[in-house]
Amino acid sequence: MRRFAFLFGAFLVLNVIGASTLISFVLRGRGLGAIVDHPGPAAVSALGAMLLLFLLSVFAVSLKGLGRPLGDLVTASGRVADGDYSARVPAQGPPPVRMVASAFNTMAEKLERQDRQRRELMADIAHELRTPLSVIQGRLEGLVDGVYPRDDAQLGQVIEDTRMLARLVDDLRLLAHTESGMLSLQKEPTDAAILAQDVVNSFAGEAKTRSVSVSLDAAADLPLVDIDPLRIREVIANVLANALRHTPAGGSISVTLTHSGSGISVTIADSGTGIAQEDLPKVFDRFYKGRSSSGSGLGLTIARNLVRAHGGEIRAESQPGRGTSITFTV
Question: How far is C-alpha 191 from the chain's CA centre?
């Protein structure tokens, strides 16, 4: 607004100077230079009237040039207010008006992108919740109809399905908090090596069942890091769980902790199937799943958001058939 006022003021000043110069030139051309050099009261009034008339004509022309761009802007604003985020306005008219049009188009593009992401998220959530709900409903109907025996094994399957649904709901809630900036971190000085060892130990049973070896290598004298241990534990657990799902029997997973400036760097590398280069940029997108993935597609997205909430970064490197490594710093 200040820039617009400055430009408009400069526009008026230049018009006054230009008008005065033009009137002086015309009068001198007609042999009336004395009026300009030694104006009397009547001459001053006449010159003032001529100057005012000239400025009014310039102002009228300016208004005519502003009318259409401002009309387009008002029309497009009404469309956006009604939920049509595809509205755009052409950048035309004086420079300040073109600046407003450009800012409006940028705003509309962001609103359109956010609306598209919201619709995609709602569709993805509906799809992800439908699958476990359908499985639970089918099992319960089978128990009621006598298709399945009403024993502890069948009830155990239903309980496991409900737990999977509960984990998905928890993941969605955590994802919403991290993406909206509402996540509250409870930071404290933490020994990351001990934290990582606890996570590795919690996966020992599953790793043994899958015949996959998991090792931890932490650099000596790692500094204490000011982190939320619960959230960083979730990061390591999500990445490790993802690595286990994609590492065949006889494979290995290594968890390595090293110094990284004033913090630490954690790398989780597996000898699994790897990720195609065209798919690698998508691994942190929500609900993205590889061809052989059986997870919810939220684990790595949540890991990325939690790392960023700590001011860190996370990246993935992979070669098909040679495994994947994911590194994050905090």
Answer: 31
Q: Read off the tokens for 13.
A: 């000043």
Query: Is residue 183 within 8 Å of 225, Cβ to Cβ?
Result: no
Inter-residue contact 302 to 312 (CB < 8 Å): no
How far is residue 11's CA from residue 3's CA, in Å, rounded to a whole number?
12
CATH code linked to domain 116-180: 1.10.287.130
Ranges of the chain with pLDDT below 50: 1, 4-5, 7-8, 11, 13-14, 16, 19, 22-23, 25-27, 30, 32-36, 38-40, 42-44, 46-47
Q: Which class for 266: exposed (0-12), middle (13-18), buried (19 or more C-beta within 10 A)?
A: buried
φ, ψ of residue 226 to 5 degrees: the values are -85, 95
pLDDT reported for residue 38:
47
Helical residues (DSSP H) of the chain, grouped into ranges: 2-29, 33-37, 41-81, 95-145, 152-180, 192-202, 204-209, 229-245, 299-309
Are the CB atoms for 23 and 47 separated by under 8 Å?
A: yes
Facing residues of 267 across strands?
Answer: 256, 327
Strands (E), 172-230: 188-190, 213-218, 225-227
CB distance 193 to 223 below 8 Å: no
pLDDT in the model for residue 148: 82
Q: In the numeric block, which tokens belong to residue 3?
A: 């820039």
For tokens 């958001």, name the residue. Answer: 305
Query: Domain 188-329: which topology?
Result: Heat Shock Protein 90 (3.30.565)
* DSSP-derived secondary structure letter, 93: S
> What element of type H or E holds 328?
strand 323-329
Distances, alpha carbon 259 to alpha carbons 167, 193, 218, 263, 329, in Å: 33, 11, 9, 6, 9
**CA–CA–CA angle 92, 94, 100 (5° rounding):** 70
What are the sequence ranges of the domains in the chain?
A: 2-111, 116-180, 188-329
Distance of alpha carbon 103 from alpha carbon 81, whole angstroms: 16
User: Taking a C-beta distance cutoff of 8 angstroms, is the pair 280, 273 a contact?
Assistant: no
